[in-house]
Automatic annotation (TrEMBL):
The lineage of its organism: Bacteria, Bacillati, Actinomycetota, Actinomycetes, Kitasatosporales. There is a cross-link at residues 161-163 (5-imidazolinone (Ala-Gly)). Pathway: Amino-acid degradation; L-histidine degradation into L-glutamate; N-formimidoyl-L-glutamate from L-histidine: step 1/3. Its EC number is 4.3.1.3. This is Histidine ammonia-lyase.
Amino acid sequence: MDMHTVVNGEGAERGLERVVVGDGRASGVTASDVLAVARGGARVQLSEEALAALAAAREIVDALAAKPDPVYGVSTGFGALATRHISPELRAQLQRNIVRSHAAGMGPSVERDVVRALMFLRLKTVCSGHTGVRPEVAQTMADLLNAGITPVVHEYGSLGCSGDLAPLSHCALALMGEGDAEGPDGVVRPAAELLAAHGIQPVELREKEGLALLNGTDGMLGMLVMALADLDTLYRSADVTAALSLEALLGTDKVLAPELHAIRPHPGQAASAANMLSVLKGSGLTGHHQDDAPRVQDAYSVRCAPQVAGAGRDTIAHARLVADRELAAAVDNPVVLSDGRVESNGNFHGAPVAYVLDFLAIAVADLGSIAERRTDRLLDKNRSHGLPPFLADDAGVDSGLMIAQYTQAALVSELKRLAVPASADSIPSSAMQEDHVSMGWSAARKLRTAVDNLTRVLAVELYAATRAIELREGLTPAPATRAVIDALREAGVQGPGPDRFLAPDLAAADAFVRDGRLLAAVETVTGPLQ
């Protein structure tokens, strides 16, 4: 059941979508829902099925709370303190205390879209009917999202096991009217003031609710979903920049022939080669690799571009499979089962998500690395097949793009450091009760930086390749290439000429890749790329 719907009514007048959450299961939320709420500001609505499931699960928790037998998270302490039975008069205080004590993050605030994704995904699990949270608590979570109130969540505090504890605790703290939050105007204020200004009553937590609000992989999953969306754009963009570099280097497009890729049937590789071939169609620059300086084959960074990008695409496909499974999950401990049992479990461990976050960081580093090698080749007069040194106007007087490549190299070096897996690490915590953790939040944070830096790396390659193509006087680029160059120049990125202040050009090229204008320009000629 696809729960991502566009409805009329409040919020629709502002052009916002509304995402309906909950059909009594956790399987109705999609990646597009997460993006709509996290980045598009979509409003959130709880379905009648969700409200019914919440009420039914709550009845089970209330019944257990009334019994003398200890139940973890309902009538006991937490973690290494789970052996203490908590008397009824202290249980509300217990739930408040776990939120307050676990809201122990440090460092800079994380981005608004990350927090909104985290809040929405926790709400998704709450609405599954497996957590025992009351309907009014879930509704308050939706109210905060709809009001544009974003709790302040800090960079450090999650080990990725028992979920993203500190980040989720800061969100739960705001539900209680405590801590700080950012309003829809971007100004940070006390959460109590923001809730009052929007007519939202702070929640009074009851048995199990504090724990249920903290115990999930929602932060790392939200960042994975957003990274996958960004990488979809960047991998297609990388096919474009690789094609332009091949063209600028007078390479051959024969290596992109479908029959060559069919005999090594990796789907990502075939898609990447097909994209490059589409971009190069009609080029007057390809096939000149035997003209002045005969070469049997192009360098690996050019010839093997589809193989490297394709491997990354296949890694993305695997990561998307993991993300979809996690989106269909109800992660909490303990969980309320459909037969009425409340059972402890280890589903909060972030390993499945952490691994693919690290896999993606490796793929991103390699894609950035091969793009930098093509850029360096464009600038080297001994390997660029007739281009001026550093693509300079008057080499010696002008330095051309020498230092643009330095910047790109620094970014690639950082990508390689970010590729070191966080999930290979584990630091025991909670008096050795939580003696193995995933570090998935850390994996997600470094992937987010890596995706950001990959965008800049591709922007430098784009800047160099388009400049080089324009220096190939007398040769006509492919129509798709011409469309990219025209759109790039219209965006304020200047072409060949004497040295000038380069940072503004590079920033404009970065924005051109980042906001999708590169793909839009290409696809006016090629149609949608794969």
